[in-house]
Amino acid sequence: MRSKVQLLYRPPDIYKKEMQTEPTNQNIQDDQSESGFKELGLFIWDLVKVLLIAMVIILPIRYVVAQPFIVSGSSMEPTFYSGEYLIINEWSYHFNSPERGDVIVFKYPKDTSQYFIKRIIALPGERVKIEENKVIIYNQEHPKGWVLTEAYIPAADTTLPVGDGSTTLGSDEYYVLGDNRLASSDSRFWGPVPRNDIIGKVFIRAFPFDEVKKFQSVEYGVK
Q1: Are both 30 and 133 inside the same structural domain?
Q2: Which of 113, 118, 134, 214 is catalytic?
Q3: pTM greater than 0.85
Q4: Which of 37, 70, 108, 222 is 20 to 30 A distant from 19 in Cα terms?
Q5: Is 75 a catalytic residue?
């Protein structure tokens, strides 16, 4: 009986030491886990802040100030070619009206899910007439009409009328044509563009890189 008691007996100090050791190791593991979760949480929060800041800065620029568009088709040659990357200035039209000669991106009036790029030829309230390969504008300053001199169109290009070639614009309508008149679907075929459908005007050609250019307003002479 005495030998059995000795085999089962553990001195109190050793037992206490072992009992203290196990929880200490567990506390260390718990601290490491908590530290890992805190670091992960801080990382996620930093990422969320970066995304929020990016949205606050980039989205207004993307949808209010400027938008990128890629040219598709040949209707604006030789000014723009298919595949070119353009930056469209939307901001200026919040303060100023579109001007004659501006190259604009707008919603196609017959299907507003599509975007077209053309040049403004006539302004609200004006009458435009196409005859004998000429574009003639009638307005208060020129009641007898004046012929647009369009230096951006190759001399050999032809501007053909559709129907009688005459259109009178409403108070919020713009008459647009493509620079490549023989390959352009424009106001000659489907009528004027409402002001509300205009997205903005071409500001910069950003690609190809060897053709990067900022575009200015066009000045027209009077004949």
Answers
A1: no
A2: 118
A3: no
A4: 37
A5: yes
